Amino acid sequence: MLRKTQPGRRGLGGGLRLYHRLVAKKIGILTAGGDSPGLNAAIRAVGKAAIRAHGMTVIGFKDGFRGLMENRYIQLESDDLSGILTRGGTVLGTSRTNCTKVEMPDGTVIDGRTEMARVIEEHQIDALVCLGGDGTAKNAIKLESVGVQVLTLPKTIDNDVVGTDVTFGFDTAVNIATEAIDRLHSTAHSHHRIMVVELMGHTVGWLALGAGLAGGADVILIPEIPHDVDTVAKSIVARKEAGSTFSIAAVAEGAISAENAAKRAEMVPEKAKATGERKATLKRALVEFDKANVGGTSDLAKKLSDLTGLESRLTILGHVQRGGTPTPADRLLATRLGTACADFIAAGIHGVMIAARGQDTIAVPLDEVAGQTRAVPVDHSWVLSARRLGISLGD
Ligand code: F6P
Questions:
Q1: Is the beta carbon of 156 within 6 A of some atom in ligand 1?
Q2: Which long-range contacts (CB under 8 A, 24 or more apart) does 19-23 make?
Q3: What are the φ and ψ backbone dihedral angles of 220, each rounded to 5 degrees?
Q4: Does 158 participate in catalysis according to the annotation?
Q5: DSSP string covering 289-329
Q6: pLDDT (tens digit per residue) in 92-134
Q7: Ligand 1: distance of its center to the CA of 36 in Å?
Q8: Long-range contacts for 80-84 (Cβ within 8 Å, ≥24 apart)?
Q9: Mean pLDDT score, 272-301
């Protein structure tokens, strides 16, 4: 049977052929890494399109790559995929398992790829769809290296995956965080307080910047723009002198002071130059340094209070930002990427992440995605808007 590909969709290296031959295939789906709103919408989209449009058989592996290695799976029929569009989390479960470093119950760590490839072979699966972020792209490349044909879809509330305009989960998290900031406004106003709200985002500031801007925060601190606490305090004092006796500071969990950023900047090239055991030591030191930086919001709230004479309170939104039903925008994105993924599989394409690029839905080679992080450009339009509004970015 021949079917025309969807208009406006481009493939690898100059585009998909206009017509492709449909063959019945069997696919596996798994969700990996931290969960994210929109995962179920994506599972539904891949599964239903694979079954209905391409006559494929679909199974879902439980709990990410760990479940794949342990061969824990469920058969997914069209009916099983109904009613999950609006559900938060992932019906398949997830884990942060690294394919080449799987921790066993006895404490040993093994390379799980051979076993994972064997499970794929046993089920006669033609393509494995992995829903995840950068870490999942890395795992996907590792599985491709042992002959498993993998495609990924970009999910994460952090919005830090390169190669796609946006990841699903981000819009929902921005909505949740914006609502929190809206609610903090009235209590901040009543008590003439500084409200520091810590938002997720790992090492990037998309979520804090997006929600801070949408929620009308007075201060937004993101990792990409190292801050100086005195500068932030001055902006709050200036607001107080102008008659606004409260301030809201939206702070990314990875936000970093200029002082710490300078120390970090010295560590990174040193690690890059080093080899062997020294490199491993410096890598560990960097990980420890970054861990110590997380949680700095409590200290920040206290310092701002001391420097401004205003009371401060800290709210850490945490995993609330990952919970609950996805927004319509995330449902649409997950559905668009998921259905396109089924088409790419039918066309025999693998080793790619299915990405949103403007109006197009394209396949990006995994090696252009893995191991990279999409940070907020310091000249991004959201940053420029914040500056024009007089929001303090702490620099
Ligand atoms: O990557 C998504 C994310 O929510 C980050 O924003 C956050 O730093 C991390 O996951 C938290 O991970 P965990 O759920 O394992 O605590």
A1: yes
A2: 20/346, 20/347, 20/348, 22/54, 22/55, 22/346, 23/346
A3: -130, 120
A4: yes
A5: HHHHHTTTHHHHHHHHHHHHS-EEEEEE-GGGGG-SPPPHH
A6: 999 999 999 999 999 999 999 999 999 999 999 999 999 999 9
A7: 10
A8: 80/47, 81/43, 81/44, 81/47, 81/48, 81/51, 82/44, 84/40, 84/41, 84/43, 84/44
A9: 89
Six token digits for residue 339: 């259905």
**CB distance 43 to 91 below 8 Å:** yes
Q: Is 4 exposed, middle or buried (0-12, 13-18, 19+ CB in 10 A)?
A: exposed
**Length of the chain in terms of residues written:** 395
* Contact between 96 and 64 (Cβ < 8 Å): yes
- Residue labelled with tokens 């607001």: 239
Q: Are 204 and 382 in contact (CB under 8 A)?
A: no
- φ/ψ of 305, rounded to 5, equals -65, -45
DSSP 8-class letter at 126: S
pLDDT digits (tens, 9 = 90+) for 362-380: 999 999 999 999 999 999 9
Long-range contacts of range 138-144, CB-CB < 8 Å, 24 or more positions apart? 138/370, 138/371, 139/32, 139/65, 139/98, 139/99, 140/351, 140/353, 140/366, 140/370, 141/351, 141/366, 141/367, 141/370, 142/99, 142/100, 142/113, 143/99, 143/113, 143/116, 143/117, 144/350, 144/351, 144/366
Ligand 1 contact, 155 CB (< 6 A): no
The rounded distance, in Å, linking the Cα atoms of 174 and 158 is: 10
Distance 95 CA to ligand 1 centre (A): 12
